[in-house]
Specification:
Organism: Ruegeria atlantica
Number of helices: 10
Structural class: alpha+beta
Radius of gyration: 39 Å
Pfam families: Response_reg (PF00072), SpoIIE (PF07228)
Low-confidence stretches: 1-8
Number of strands: 18
Keywords: Hydrolase, Phosphoprotein
Protein name: SpoIIE family protein phosphatase
Number of domains: 2
CATH architecture of the largest domain: 4-Layer Sandwich
CATH class of the largest domain: Alpha Beta
Distance between the termini: 111 Å
InterPro entries: Bact_Sigma-Reg (IPR052016), CheY-like_superfamily (IPR011006), PPM-type-like_dom_sf (IPR036457), PPM-type_phosphatase-like_dom (IPR001932), Sig_transdc_resp-reg_receiver (IPR001789)
Length: 424
């Protein structure tokens, strides 16, 4: 029985936090009256139940914040009621205190297993009851604060998911636009052929390859790698794709119209300087790019090329010998008035030239280290076949995927241009 001398405080004097409504379950009417009187003096809304079944009905209609339940009751015991109560589908946690004369450790363990949060040993003391309710209130306050934060997190995650879906759709469309910059991946020019490979590591990438021919026996092709990854790099490739258009020669900075009749290919070093000037003239642009741009006279295999910070192109001679070309050079968009050196070689029928991005040579291998130039050379020699062209590039990329660590995957955009010269 709860002594009345210790029940003079009101709720205004105490802090019971989240606990507002209390359900008292006891088959003893006297015990219920004493508990209810105490709880109402402390400012709680109290609901009474004589049996576990009646208590469950109350919980279904309007769940309480706290349950004080006797253990030993006719019909459904307090332990069984606690089990059934915890099985109810409720969004809000309720603190459950069992009232019992049992103090054995095994009985306490049974109560905890059933879902009870605390115990009070009869006869009850008002100070202890108040202290246990306060402890429960602190736990409920923390639990409900956590639940509120979880709801906020779930709401934020849903907003992020919707935003991610919208961005994902935009990126898918952006990829289609970027793919339109490379309208064809293989094309024959007389007996010779140019094949392209473009494999972004994400939805979109910062690599770009292309080719164009303003007339018979005249051919230009390029490989570009913009610094960084993602949207800004992809936007730069779209811009460069316009500068080096294969369809609109009047917009292509690598061509010059002569005698108002035909277009001529400008020297590669002049094209690199022009692109550098355009990029440096734009304020706020921090991106730069590396490039190999080459033009070739298909009548005699005379090839002129500029290497602007791009990996060294690999020349595969018809006799089986190989050679890396170029001295490196400066990337485009780093230094104003930078100069670019032109390289000239003569290709013989059967010779091939592979221009590639550092997505090949700087690929992390599963066995450790990078592929580097020697690994690329060996891979290219293994992939050379009579079919060549796109099949050669596809085989190169497939072999690259087999060499990398599965957990790392392709960490950079991979692109290449494969030029096969077969004479006039």
């Amino acid at each position: 029985m709860v002594p009345r001398t210790s029940l003079e405080e009101t709720r205004s004097d105490l802090d019971f936090g989240a606990i507002r409504k209390v359900l008292v379950v006891d088959d003893s009417r006297l015990q219920r009256r004493i508990l209810v009187a105490s709880l109402r003096k402390w400012g709680f809304e109290v609901v009474e139940a004589e049996t576990g079944d009646a208590a469950l009905a109350h919980c279904l209609d309007d769940p309480p914040d706290l349950v004080l339940s006797d253990w030993v009751m006719p019909g459904m015991s307090g332990l069984e009621f606690c089990n059934a109560f915890r099985a109810l589908d409720s969004d809000q946690y309720c603190y459950f205190i069992l009232l019992t004369s049992k103090s054995e450790k095994q009985e306490v363990a049974r109560g905890l297993d059933a879902g009870a949060d605390d115990f009070l040993i009869k006869p009850l003391e008002a100070d202890e009851l108040r202290a246990r309710i306060s402890a429960g209130a602190r736990i409920l306050d923390m639990q409900r604060e956590l639940s509120q934060k979880n709801r906020l997190i779930e709401s934020a995650l849903e907003e992020l998911r919707l935003a991610h879906d919208a961005i994902d759709k935009d990126l898918i469309q952006a990829r289609k636009i970027q793919e339109s910059l490379v309208p064809e991946f293989t094309r024959s020019f007389g007996k010779s052929r140019v094949s392209l490979l473009l494999k972004p590591c994400g939805h979109i990438g910062g690599d770009l390859v292309g080719m164009f021919s303003p007339g018979v026996n005249r051919l230009g092709f390029y490989s570009i790698d913009v610094s960084g990854h993602g949207i800004t790099s992809a936007m730069m490739t779209a811009r460069l794709g316009g500068y080096l258009s294969s369809k609109h020669f009047d917009q292509n900075v690598a061509m010059e119209k002569r005698f108002n009749k035909f277009y001529a290919l400008l020297p590669p070093e002049d094209v690199a300087s022009m692109l550098n000037s355009r990029l440096m003239a734009d304020e706020g642009i921090e991106e730069y790019f590396t490039m190999v741009y080459a033009i070739v006279d298909l009548r005699n295999g005379h090839l002129k090329m500029v290497q602007a910070g791009h990996p060294h192109p690999l020349l595969l001679r018809q006799d089986g010998s190989t050679e890396f070309l170029g001295d490196g050079g400066l990337p485009i968009g780093l230094i104003e008035d930078a100069s670019f050196q032109q390289i000239e070689i003569h290709m013989k029928p059967g010779d091939k030239l592979l221009v590639y991005s550092d997505g090949f040579t700087e690929c992390q291998l599963a066995e450790g280290g990078l592929l580097e130039e020697d690994g690329l050379r060996q891979m290219a020699q293994q992939c050379i076949s009579e079919k060549g062209g796109s099949e050669f590039l596809d085989d190169m990329f497939w072999r690259l995927t087999q060499e990398i660590s599965p957990k790392d995957g392709i960490g950079d955009d991979v692109s290449a241009v494969f030029f096969e010269y077969n004479g006039p």
